């Protein structure tokens, strides 16, 4: 509050020396600082660089539950925001903060915006980022879903399965890769076919380190194990790069019981009645077990 009060006094003085400062924290922990001032500024553990070309286009904020949003423009460069990092999705969902600061005394500053990066577009050597305020989270549906399949995510707190246990993951160097989407190994027979279907492939080294993709299919083809992703990893992958394959789950009761021995944490309702049961009615001489009406 003292910092904001000092800034208000500065703004009330008529002659002002203020600049906007932007901080970005990616999900992998990488931190960036930008400012529209002509010199670098430093505070809050960030160095806000002046030669990045980042600027705000618009800022909308409210006191109600409507979504705060803003946009920022910037130039792509190898030393700040690179085209390769944007293509790889490394800035997706990154945390963003914006301050209005007195560049002659950065102790006088006020936090204007806090949120995350939404849609990010690039063209002509520049990028345009949609920034979403904290109220964006209020649009997410919450509450329990009653359905036959499990609603937990494999490995999360509700599920409780430890994917670091032997048998639930495999770490291998890439032996063959096609379009950053189809991977092949000659010796990986210790896991059953389709063991990794619906699982996750995580890149642990090389240019794609930190990126991951969802596994669409896990099969054997002529002695080779073939793992296919739903979408390509958005980075240049090479033979020898280390990847981690994590077992997949189809959310079924039997899979939880037999594959993961985790029935006590099953988050679905396998015995919940279906639509046919809701529409059934008693009939003389017919099977009234609650099964399909077409039986």
Alpha-carbon distance between the two ends: 71 Å
Shape: extended
Q: How do the strands of the widest beta sheet line up side by side? A: 2-1-7-8-9-6-5
Q: How does the helix and strand content classify structurally? A: mainly beta
- Low-pLDDT segments: 60-65
**Any guess at the CATH architecture of the largest domain?**
Beta Barrel
Helix and strand element order: HEEEEEEHEEEEEEEEEEHH
Question: How large is the share of residues in beta strands?
Answer: 25-35%
In the CATH scheme, what's the topology name of the largest domain? Thrombin, subunit H
Radius of gyration: 26 Å
Query: How helix-rich are the residues, as a percent range?
Result: under 10%
> Average pLDDT value?
83
Domain count: the total is: 2
The total count of helices amounts to 4
Strand segment tally: 16
Provide the CATH top-level class of the largest domain.
Mainly Beta
What kind of sheet is the major sheet? 7 strands, antiparallel
Protein name: Bacteriophage phiJL001 Gp84 C-terminal domain-containing protein
Pfam family, one: Phage_BR0599
InterPro entries: Phage_phiJL001_Gp84, Phage_phiJL001_Gp84_C
Domain Bacteriophage phiJL001 Gp84 C-terminal: 195-276
């Amino acid at each position: 509050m003292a910092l904001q009060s000092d800034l208000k006094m500065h703004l009330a003085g008529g002659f002002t020396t203020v600049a906007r400062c932007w901080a970005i924290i990616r999900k992998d922990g990488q931190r960036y600082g930008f400012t529209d001032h002509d010199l670098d500024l430093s505070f809050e553990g960030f160095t806000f660089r002046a030669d990045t070309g980042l600027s705000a286009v618009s800022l909308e904020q409210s006191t109600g539950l409507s979504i705060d949003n803003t946009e920022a423009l910037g130039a792509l460069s190898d030393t700040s925001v690179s085209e390769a990092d944007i293509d790889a999705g490394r800035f997706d969902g990154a945390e963003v903060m914006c301050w209005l600061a007195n560049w002659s005394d950065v102790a006088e500053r006020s936090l204007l915006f806090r949120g995350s990066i939404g849609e990010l577009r690039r063209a002509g050597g520049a990028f345009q980022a949609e920034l979403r305020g904290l109220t964006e989270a209020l649009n997410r549906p919450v509450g329990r879903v009653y359905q036959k399949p499990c609603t937990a995510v494999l490995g999360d707190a509700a599920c409780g399965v430890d994917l670091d246990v032997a048998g639930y993951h495999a770490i291998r160097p890439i032996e063959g890769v096609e379009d950053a989407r189809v991977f092949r190994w000659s010796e990986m027979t210790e896991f059953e076919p389709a063991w990794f279907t619906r699982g996750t492939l995580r890149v642990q080294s090389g240019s794609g380190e930190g990126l991951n993709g969802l596994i669409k299919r896990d099969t054997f083809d002529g002695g080779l194990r073939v793992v296919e992703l739903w979408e390509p990893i958005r980075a240049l992958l090479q033979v020898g790069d280390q990847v981690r394959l994590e077992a997949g789950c189809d959310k079924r009761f039997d899979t939880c019981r037999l594959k993961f021995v985790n029935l006590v944490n099953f988050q679905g309702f396998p015995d919940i009645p279906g639509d046919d049961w809701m529409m059934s009615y008693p009939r003389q001489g017919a099977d009234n077990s609650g099964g399909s009406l077409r039986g």
